[in-house]
Amino acid sequence: MNLKDKQKYLEDQEAQYHSYISDSMAAMQKKGGNKKRFIMPFTPQWHHVRTLEKQGRKPKFGSYKYSAQRLYEKGILLAAKEFSPKQFDKLFIIISCDEVGIFKVEVRFMDKLVKGNSSSNTSIHQNSQQQQQLGGSSSHAGVHKDGIDELRMEDLLEDQFSGKQSLNLEIVKLNLNLLLHLINRKGDWKDDSRPTTP
User: Fold this and answer.
1) Running DSSP on this structure, what letter comes out for residue 69?
2) What 3-state DSSP class applies to 107?
3) pLDDT number for residue 62
């Protein structure tokens, strides 16, 4: 076996690996997708989903609205730029998923989208000033565009494997392990666009 054959073999293995990962993530998100989850009426989550439905912006795999205060108390939220913990009761973090393995995180203060100081479509890998402000050796997997951070599950898992403890986004700093646990615990990033069966 010469080097070209070995290179072709390894490239085929890599392609199979990426295909397997994509299929696995798609299967995880579709599992149980026919079940419609009950949302307690008149809660912030109920209002959030209802607003998205009225605007025709409901993500295919769901959207969840969390109080920054609650995430801070659970240790998921570590810091928020320009906000003190006293303001966290008016600050909300919304995590939504419209594509398999891609999660969008937006921060809202009193129902208005909070945008960072960097220009749109800036890779978070390039935003070193933000890293200094929010601190430390942390992960910065994702892309920031128009006030919304886009995270890829494979990047988050890779950073977790590398031993990173936190995730710096444009506005907030999150505990990486607890964020992944929150995403996986929800367990219903399923296709909500399919009709439910009686």
Assistant:
1) H
2) strand
3) 86
User: Structural domain boundaries of the chain?
Assistant: 44-186
**Dist CA 128 CA 150 (whole Å):** 18
3-state DSSP helix/strand/coil percent for the chain, to nearest 5?
A: 40, 25, 35
Q: How far apart are the C-alpha atoms of 133 and 130, rounded to whole Å?
A: 5
Nearest to 189 by CA among 20, 30, 66: 30
Report how far residue 142's alpha carbon sits from residue 30's, in angstroms, rounded to the nearest whole number. Answer: 24
* Cα angle 62-64-70, degrees, rounded to a multiple of 5: 165
- β-bridge pairing 112-113 and 122-123: unpaired
**CA-based nearest residue to 178, from 122, 85, 95, 81:** 95
Residue 46's pLDDT band (cuts 50, 70, 90): confident
Beta-bridge partner residues of 144: 122, 149
> For residue 167, how many other CB atoms are within 10 A of its CB?
29
> Are 76 and 174 contacting, i.e. CB atoms less than 8 angstroms apart?
yes
Three-state secondary structure call for residue 149: strand
Q: Where are the alpha helices (H) located in 56-161, listed in sequence order?
A: 68-73, 128-134, 153-161
pTM: 0.70
In the structure encoding, which two tokens stand for residue 50, read together? 């209802």
Could you tell me which residue, 80 or 138, shows the higher pLDDT? Answer: 80
